[in-house]
Amino acid sequence: MIYQNVKTQRVDVGGTDFYYRKLGENNSDIPIIFLNHLAATMDNCDPRIMDGLATARQIICFDNRGIGATKGTTPKTVAEMAKDARAFIHALGYEKVDLVGFSLGGFITQEILLQEPHLVRRAIITGAGSAGGEGIKNVTKLTYLDIFRGLLTFKDAKTYLFFNRNENGKKSAKEFLNRLKERKENRDEKMKVGNFQRQLKAIHAWGLQAAQDLSVIKQPVLVANGENDRMVPSSNTSNLAKRIPNSQIIIYKDAGHGGIFQYHDEFVKSALEFLCKQ
C-alpha cells in the first residue's frame, strides 16, 4: 500500500467525524502523527514523505476540524487546533505518539508539547517558528499576495510560497505539485474559504502572541527548514533550536519554506534516523 491509494477512514471525536489516512506497518505502539500546513487537506501531504516514513513506522494524517472532509468550524487559535488534535489522537486510542508538523502544523506541534507533554515521545517541527516569532504576523498578507500572483500566472500559490524562484526552486515546485496529483480516486474534499480565513486569523494571532517558555519541552525535537523561508523566516528555526533544550537542527541549502519537499529523500532519511531512536 502506498499513500496515493491508501483508504480514508473516520473516527468520532466528541460527536464529530474526523477523517484520516493511516499508512505503514503497525510495528510500534507509537505512531507518527503528521500535522499539516495552512489550507492543507490530506491530499496536500507529500506522497514521497508519507511513503518514505511508512517504510519503517506507521504514519497517520488527518483533517482537523473544519478541514477537508471533517465537518465543523475551524478554530481561530492554534491552541484550540492543538486541543482538537489531541482529542483525535486519544479517540484513536493512543497514549503516546511522535509528531511531525509542517508550518501551521509546526505551531500546533509546539502547543501539543506544552499542553500535554506526556502524549509526545519525539517531535519534528519544520517550516515553523515560536509564538511571536519574526515575520509570522505577515503570513496572511504574504499568502494573499501569492494567491493573487498565482491567479495572474495560472500557477498554484505554493509555487511562490514554498519554493525559491530560481531554477532549482521552479523544478522542485513542479515536481512537488505533480506528486500531489498522484491520487486519482477518493480524493479529499476542498477546504471552505471561511475556514481557510479562520486558519489565517489563528496564524496571525500566533504571530502577535507573547513568547512561550519552550525550555520546559524535554522531548528530543528535530527542527528543519530551508535557508530562505519567506513565509516563516528561517531565523525562527534557529531560534527554536536555541530555545528547546534537547533539539537538533537541519537547514537545507538553496531552499525555501518547502525545504522538506525539495529535499524529501534527505528529510525522510534524517526523520527516520531521529524517530526510530528509543
From TrEMBL:
Checking InterPro entries in the record gives: AB_hydrolase, AB_hydrolase_1, AB_hydrolase_fold
Coiled-coil intervals, chain numbering: none
Protein keywords = Hydrolase
Question: What SUPFAM superfamilies does this protein's entry cite?
Answer: alpha/beta-Hydrolases
What residues does the AB hydrolase-1 domain cover? 31-261
Q: Which GO terms describe its molecular function?
A: hydrolase activity
Q: Which domain of life is it from?
A: Bacteria
Q: What is this protein called?
A: Alpha/beta hydrolase
